[in-house]
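Risk register update: the risk of archive-format incompatibility is retired. Evidence:
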Amino acid sequence: MSADTNLENAFYRLTLDREKGVITSLFDKELQVELLDVQDTISLGAFIYERLDNRQAMERLTNTNRDTIYVPLKKTLSTLTDITVSAIEDGAIWKSIRIHGTLPDCADSRGVNIEIRLYHTDKRIQLLYDMHKLPVTEPEAVYVAFPFGLEGSKLAFEAQGGLVFPGINQLEGTSSDWNVVQNFASVRNDQGQIVYSSNDIPSSNLARSIPADSITGISPKRRISIHGYSTITGPPTSKPARKGR
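Archived output:
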């Protein structure tokens, strides 16, 4: 059996790496453009579990301790193992494929389940994640990577009362890394945009470039990733840019 599987509809052609359980290509048929940074070593939908070596490293910055010297956090990163991929299901509303993997330190024996949906009549992709989380009292995080890549693009997200472009029009001194997304975030250029939304997990890591010693340990890349502890959903869509307001 081929290591890759294509899931396709009238809008997208999606390539899934069956061995890793991640999306390695997302081609937009309408725009005739690849929507992912295919050179990135972290693929779309990658499920990453992070554990810190000690809590004290995370608590260096408090109300009474404003240590401004950057010290990389010591941590352990884990991804899914024992991955299985189902056959493609062609339903009345969408095509879908299911992925199952194990992550013993994070999920119980039932593992992590992922479903990828391509809708027949709606230009929308949905990624659904579920697991039965193990009780962990030490610092931890779960990330799902969205390494979108449009040439000459910029990041934006909706906050309360307006649209924020990280590092451009945000309030001085506020975070340009972690943000709470009101309804959507987007990667956009003059030709189109990719819109990301997650109603369940609003806390997102929106970064134009992530330091090499950050969560991935790789060179800086443009990435949208989502952080949360419960069921994670994130339906990205792409569409031509609209003129005007």
